[in-house]
């Protein structure tokens, strides 16, 4: 197990470095940070000075290696615009997006467990189809439109919830719904499939034969067994949400990583974009790694699968 | 913009083939999806015949006429006119082409990349598989939305850029599913038999493997197409989608968002259009999955 | 009202509930973009001007309604010769940290903005200044590099005064989050890019042309999406927003409890053509093509229907109220698609041509332009870029045509607009030697009449040769709670210190 874990950890680190290198290359090819930084009427001297100061005049390989070397020690340099530590900016905003992601996941799971269980209990009936359709509905709406509709209904007409910002728990409810809805179909399908597997298994049949009530079988045994794959899907989805919350954060004026990413892209604030790509991929890699190790610990066969 | 986890195990079950048509007629979801997609596709194909008016024709004296179901609506512009006085119905009809085009091209590009990688990895295994698995993992670990946004924002966006960027980033699901499916097929008797008779690998892949991947390919293709259409609308929201005056549905929704409070039909009409199309595609994909995976039913 | 389908209930709630905010004397405002620094000289964001008006004062004050110059931190000013400006400073003014205002502060501020080793972002606004010298505790001399008659206008604009001791102690970085000025409001809290809290400066100096502030506290939040801002405004979450999209603004005005104010700004739109072929051979090198494009676009309709709120179409490349701006006798291209088609045929493009048009803001305006061109057979592909990317391309000479707009930093002088695009240099796509000479002379002349004449010659030539197509002035729509009293203004950037609760 230890060797397996070590191999996976090394692989994960290598993946994160590759991702950064690709992002570094793409950004290098497609923009000019110094011009953006210097403003609309900067003189040539300013531009030259800044490009030396930030090291943009060196070859790209050298830039990347020196950046990576510092990044490993947690030093992402300074934002071109805010003159603050990039690491500090990201650290500041990470909890906000994490909270949003976790709440969105919570919503997705809370919605898909009952739907998935219902569907699994009555497969191929109207109930099954309806459950799937409900989860598909959300996925078919462009998410910013869905978000605006939520704002209009719950923020403006009913006035149940605050519209924008991230200053309290209530502020996160609408964005979490808007973000989480998109993950429901995946969870619902998974839960349905897992539940059907478990319900068909021998020990559940035995449990039923022993005369345990349906609800007890369902919640004490079947659901508990279905939870492990759900957790690993959740880990993966959380990784996606960190990178994918740009629009939701934009609409709800949440100052998380997504907003930071988008603003930094708009401003060509390279150090920030660069660091965000690395941080998010590390988080994603870390989450999948945990899920893998967890699964491997539970099911030893997986250790030799890959 | 959350992405589905490639749900391998749902897709891997082999087609029953024969009973397909009989069962498909009974599958409401599949039929609904098929009908919706067919409807949009035929609107797209017949667009020039269906529209009497130029979707690009601007008339600032005729701005923001409401659709026919409003009191002030007229039948001259059944869906009303937009901010520039262009006929909204014509734009919706022509927009179906752009949106389908984006979906199809992205699907083809990502499908080619993803399934090539997947087949090679699954078929040859060993070191090749390890390398390709690594590439797939890198791709999965990359926050694509961010990277795509950055690239499009710096390069400047256009229909070609959108299609290319989305196509180059969205191949992961193809690769993952096809790799696993190929692996499984490779162990099947008919492939082993072909290898024993000394058939070259390329022949086996083309004749034995690929035809048997068609079901899985179709299912992922539909999912990716739906995803691409939605992503284009998301990019449009940020101003990075297709450039106006091209009437893509995603762009129409994005352009109409400032009217959501007071002239909501402007966002509702393209919104419903895209909703029906994406729902249709998803239902179709789900339907195919159900129909080709009969084991799941029991 | 009937059209407010989605928010039908909203207006009802609005009408029945008093604005919560007015109770605690706090004005909640929102804007779209993030301010990366509160240091006026190092930000190019439009919103920095709002902050400047609140937190700082300049030596001279330009009345936002009449554009008349009034004494502010300087009580008197005088050109002692073409290149020397002497100012007498106001006594008894203190900065918000208690530091007294005197000649040292002026000298330090001028030094800060002209330091060649640490150039500021808005350097073009101060490039005319050579140095400043103290000639008494309350008297300073500003030395100009060359004669620059618009100096007073610039001093009344984007050049506020900073406290020398505080600036030296906190430096550029410290000042960017905790600025100190002499203005009616002080910044008590700021989270860069997210929110700024301003509180009334109770010790604001007597006799300021800005008057004493009334509202106790102004809290700014950054809300990137304008729909979300509108939702917040309708629900009472914020009390004030600006840059409301035109169509939304006109409808918002119909909802009870929201006041919409349209302020015409100095911002002028124009299409810049690559007349000199800097980006390689292009149809725009032919004057007939440029004139054809000029005839193809209905600027009048765009100005009335798309912009509204007092926008006017312009015929020369400047804002009508700017010093030196005139369209008398200049060629005017009326809207005529037929003429456009004829000119295109004469120029050898009977079937039109295709080109890339670049733009960076107000995309609908460019979209309308693209549609007009399409109607005469010219295919314009819209390339929408962020400003920095666009400006870089522009300076590199890579652009065939750009739909630009320029706010002149609120400076009411042609030198802030026309000179920046036709005086030679990297953004000059006409490369007309005559125009360059006239503008150079005019910028440096101290004789008002001579300046006007030279600018007119340049503007006439630009119009006749259609080097650029001037479009129309932009309008800034404000929407705010009807409980708020805010006088309308003639310049672009809101003077929020004038706000009061009814």
How do you describe this structure in short?
Chain A has 306 residues and is mainly alpha-helical. Chain A has helices at residues 2-30, 33-38, 44-53, 60-72, 86-121, 126-140, 143-157, 173-180, 184-200, 202-209, 214-244, 246-251, 257-266, 270-298.
Task: Give an account of the 3D structure.
The complex is a heterotrimer of chains A (306), B (298) and C (502). Chain A has 306 residues and is mainly alpha-helical. Chain A folds into two domains: 2-72, no CATH class; 90-298, MetI-like fold. In chain A, 76% of the residues lie in helices and 0% in strands. In chain A, α9 packs antiparallel against α11 (214-244). The longest helix of chain A is centred in the middle third of the chain and has 36 residues, at 86-121. The mean pLDDT of chain A is 81. Chain B has 298 residues and is mainly α. Chain B has one domain: MetI-like fold. In chain B, 69% of the residues lie in helices and 0% in strands. The longest helix of chain B is centred in the middle third of the chain and has 37 residues, at 88-124. Residues 1-15 and 294-298 of chain B have low confidence and may be disordered. Chain C has a domain at 265-475: Dipeptide-binding Protein, Domain 3 (Dipeptide-binding Protein, domain 3, Roll), CATH 3.10.105. Chain C has a ten-stranded mixed β-sheet with strand order 8-9-10-1-11-16-12-15-13-14, with helices on both faces. A four-stranded antiparallel β-sheet of chain C has the order 4-5-7-6, covered by helices on one side. Chain C has a two-stranded antiparallel ribbon with strand order 2-3. In chain C, β4 and β5 (84-89) form a beta hairpin. Chain C starts with 7 loop residues before the first helix and ends with a strand. Mean pLDDT of chain C is 89; it is low at 1-22. The chains are: A mainly alpha (306), B mainly alpha (298), C alpha+beta (502). Chains in contact: A-B, A-C, B-C. At the A-B interface, α1, α6, α7, α9 and α11 of A face α6, α7, α11, α12 and α13 of B.
């Amino acid at each position: 197990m230890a060797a397996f874990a070590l191999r996976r950890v090394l692989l994960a680190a290598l993946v994160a470095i590759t991702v950064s290198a690709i992002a570094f290359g793409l950004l290098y090819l497609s923009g000019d940070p110094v011009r953006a930084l210097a403003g609309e009427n900067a003189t040539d001297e300013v531009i030259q000075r800044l490009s030396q100061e930030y090291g943009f005049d060196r070859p790209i390989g050298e830039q990347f290696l020196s950046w990576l070397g510092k990044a490993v020690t947690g030093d992402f340099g300074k934002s071109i615009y805010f003159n603050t530590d990039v690491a500090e900016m990201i650290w500041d905003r990470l909890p906000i997006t994490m909270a949003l992601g976790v709440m969105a996941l919570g919503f997705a799971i809370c919605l898909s467990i009952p739907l998935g269980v219902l569907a699994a209990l009555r497969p191929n009936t109207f109930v099954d189809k309806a459950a799937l359709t409900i989860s598909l509905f959300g996925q078919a709406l462009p998410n910013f439109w869905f978000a605006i509709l939520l704002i209009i209904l719950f923020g403006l007409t009913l006035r149940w919830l605050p519209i924008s910002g991230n200053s309290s728990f209530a502020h996160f409810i609408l964005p979490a719904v808007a973000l989480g809805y998109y993950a429901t179909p995946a969870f619902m399908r998974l839960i349905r499939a897992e539940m059907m597997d478990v319900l068909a298994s021998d020990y559940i049949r035995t449990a039923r034969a022993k005369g345990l009530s349906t609800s007890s079988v369902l919640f004490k045994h079947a659901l508990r067994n279905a939870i492990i794959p759900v957790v690993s899907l959740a880990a993966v989805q959380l990784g996606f949400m960190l990178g994918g919350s740009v629009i939701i954060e934009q609409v709800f004026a949440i100052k998380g990583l997504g907003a930071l990413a988008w603003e930094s892209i708009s401003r060509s604030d390279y150090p920030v974009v660069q660091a965000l790509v690395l941080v998010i991929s590390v988080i994603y890699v870390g989450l999948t790694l945990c899920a893998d190790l967890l699964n491997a610990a539970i099911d030893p066969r997986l250790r030799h699968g890959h | 913009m959350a992405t589905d986890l490639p749900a391998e195990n749902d897709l891997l079950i082999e087609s029953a083939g024969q009973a397909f048509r009989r069962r498909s007629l009974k599958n409401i979801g599949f039929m609904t999806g098929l009908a919706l997609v067919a409807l949009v596709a035929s609107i797209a194909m017949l667009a020039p015949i269906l529209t009497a008016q130029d979707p690009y024709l601007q008339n600032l004296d005729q701005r923001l006429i409401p659709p026919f179901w409003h009191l002030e609506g007229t039948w001259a512009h059944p869906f009303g006119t937009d901010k520039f006085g262009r006929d909204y119905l014509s734009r919706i009809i022509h927009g179906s082409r752009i949106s389908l085009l984006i979906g199809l091209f992205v699907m083809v590009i990502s499908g080619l990349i993803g399934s090539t990688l997947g087949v090679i990895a699954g078929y040859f295994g060993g070191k090749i598989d390890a390398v390709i698995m690594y590439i797939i993992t890198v791709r999965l670990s990359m926050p694509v939305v961010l990277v795509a946004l950055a690239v499009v924002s710096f390069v400047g966006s256009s229909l070609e850029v959108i299609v290319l960027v989305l196509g180059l980033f969205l191949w992961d699901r193809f690769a993952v599913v096809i790799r696993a499916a190929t692996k499984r097929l490779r162990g099947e008797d008919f492939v082993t038999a072909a290898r024993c008779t000394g058939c070259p690998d390329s022949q086996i892949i083309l004749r034995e493997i690929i035809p048997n991947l068609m079901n899985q390919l179709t299912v992922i293709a539909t999912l990716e197409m739906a995803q691409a259409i939605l992503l284009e609308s998301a990019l449009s929201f940020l101003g990075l989608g297709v450039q106006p005056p091209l009437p893509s549905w995603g762009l129409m929704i994005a352009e109409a968002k400032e009217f959501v409070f007071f002239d909501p039909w402007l966002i509702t009409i393209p919104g419903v259009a895209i909703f029906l199309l994406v729902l249709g595609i998803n239902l179709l994909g789900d339907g195919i999955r159900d129909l080709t995976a009969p084991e799941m039913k029991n | 009202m009937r059209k407010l389908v989605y928010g039908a209930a909203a207006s009802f709630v609005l009408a029945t509930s008093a604005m919560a905010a007015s109770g605690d004397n706090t004005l909640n405002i929102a804007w779209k973009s993030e301010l990366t620094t509160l240091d006026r000289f190092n930000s190019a964001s439009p919103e920095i001007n709002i902050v400047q008006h609140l937190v700082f004062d300049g030596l001279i004050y330009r009345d936002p309604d009449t554009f008349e110059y009034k004494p502010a931190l300087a009580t008197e000013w005088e050109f002692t010769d073409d290149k020397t400006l002497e100012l007498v400073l106001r006594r008894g003014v203190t900065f918000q940290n208690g530091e007294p205002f005197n000649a040292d502060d002026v000298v330090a501020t001028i030094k800060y903005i002209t330091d060649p080793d640490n150039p500021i972002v808005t350097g073009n606004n101060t490039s005319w200044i050579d140095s400043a010298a103290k000639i008494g505790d309350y008297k300073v001399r500003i030395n100009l590099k060359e004669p620059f008659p618009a100096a007073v206008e610039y001093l009344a604009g984007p050049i506020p005064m900073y406290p020398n001791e505080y600036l030296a102690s906190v430096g550029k970085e410290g000042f960017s989050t905790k600025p100190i000025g002499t203005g009616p409001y002080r910044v008590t809290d700021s989270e860069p890019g997210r929110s700024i809290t301003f509180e009334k400066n109770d010790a604001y100096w007597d006799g300021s042309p800005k008057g004493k502030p009334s509202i106790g506290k102004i809290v700014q939040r950054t809300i990137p999406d304008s729909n979300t801002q509108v939702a917040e405004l309708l629900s009472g979450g914020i009390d004030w927003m600006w840059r409301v999209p035109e169509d939304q603004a006109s409808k918002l005005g119909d909802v009870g409890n929201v006041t919409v104010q349209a302020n015409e700004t100095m911002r002028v739109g124009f299409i810049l053509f690559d007349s000199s072929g800097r980006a390689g051979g292009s149809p725009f090198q032919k004057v007939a093509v440029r004139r054809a494009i000029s005839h193809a676009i209905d600027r009048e309709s765009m100005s009335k229907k798309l912009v509204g709120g007092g926008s006017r179409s312009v015929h020369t490349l400047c804002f009508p109220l700017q010093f030196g701006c005139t369209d008398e006798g200049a060629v005017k291209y009326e809207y005529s698609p037929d003429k456009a088609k004829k000119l295109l045929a004469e120029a050898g493009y009977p079937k039109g041509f295709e080109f890339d048009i670049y733009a960076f803001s107000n995309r609908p305006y460019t979209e309308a332009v693209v549609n007009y061109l399409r109607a005469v057979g010219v295919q314009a592909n819209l390339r929408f870029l962020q400003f920095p990317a666009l400006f870089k391309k522009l300076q590199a000479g890579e652009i065939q045509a750009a739909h630009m707009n320029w706010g002149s930093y609120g400076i009411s002088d042609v030198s802030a607009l026309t000179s920046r695009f036709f005086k030679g240099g990297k953004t000059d796509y006409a490369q007309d030697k005559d125009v360059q000479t006239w503008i150079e002379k005019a910028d440096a002349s101290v004789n008002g009449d001579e300046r006007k004449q030279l600018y007119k010659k340049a503007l006439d030539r630009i119009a006749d040769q259609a080097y650029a197509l001037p479009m129309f002035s932009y309008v800034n729509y404000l929407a705010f709670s009807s409980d708020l009293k805010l006088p309308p203004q003639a310049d672009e950037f809101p003077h929020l210190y004038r706000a009061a609760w009814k």
